[in-house]
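## retry 2 of 3
previous attempt timed out at serialization; input unchanged, resubmitting
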Amino acid sequence: MLDLLRGAGPAGLGRAELAARTGLTPQAVSKITARLGADGLVAEAGRAASTGGKPRTLLRLVPDVHHAVGVHLDRDELRAVRVDLAGRVVAESRGPLDFGAGPEAVVEAVVRAVARVGDPAGLPLLGVGVAAPGPLDHRAGTMGRVTGFPSWKGFPLRGVLQGRLGLPVLLDKDTNAGAAAAAGAWLRVAWPDADSGRGTDAAPDGYAYPLAGGGPRTCVYLHVGTGLGAGLWLGGAVYRGERSAAGEFGHQVLLLDGPPCRCGARGCVEALCLGAVARGDIPEAARILGEAAANLVALLDVDRVLLGGRVVAAAPDVFVAGVGAVLAARALDPGRPVVALAGAGVAEGAAELALGPVFGRVG
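## retry succeeded, writing output
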């Protein structure tokens, strides 16, 4: 019910609509919304236009009652955001990070960043989502053998941070957080921008989404930064695989006996794409990314390919056009997926994952 109210934005929904969409009885909806109202999570949003009877009272989510923090640990940068229940960023911190300095130094950096974005008024946080380079074990909260950083293998990052912060902590791969942010960006457009006070009816990729009970069911988020990976949003949720290892997109081999990759293989898409970036050949980098994306689309039949990461942000039009051209050329039917920029960053996605339990999304 909270998820439906979040998607409806400030306009809200009536109790009858909530009953119809949840399958609950009107009496059950009244009891639940009364409890949510007592907890400060739901408030009246006015009355709907009369259709002949008594005007319906509309209910809305109260986004400011709780906040969560999302942290993106990149190999050379740490970004933290505090968001409200609508997913809007209300505080942000960014600074350099030496991921290779080891777990202890990074833990200290995270603790400081969470303190910087914390609410000065003392509003308690629901939790902290941490997005880190993979591979890692999402369920156990431990790091894996991150390419180039062997000291991280087996480090219980989630448990250590929970002990230091005294808060629930969720650990996931940066690409999974990116997928959550990209798929969840449609929700945030239902709420007025914190600065302008204006909302919009279209998601950041320019395609209209329903503002309640909808959103993309399948998409892939491709992240190009200091590394290259994918987050998979399948069936309305992040898909992690049996061992949290899904989405190692950057290490698919595109060129047999190609240039060596830091993973130990040769001809990986990451080595080819980032090599083109290093040479300054951004159109070639986009073409390589598109070829790898086309393989993924052929396997998963997704309806959106969303692009993010600092390399994409430096030349967004080139990447959207380049990836789109390859997908169009390799499409087996006219219904090829939309290619667009992701509507939010990895830190926002980490916060979105931390908010998940509030809206019935667990795991």
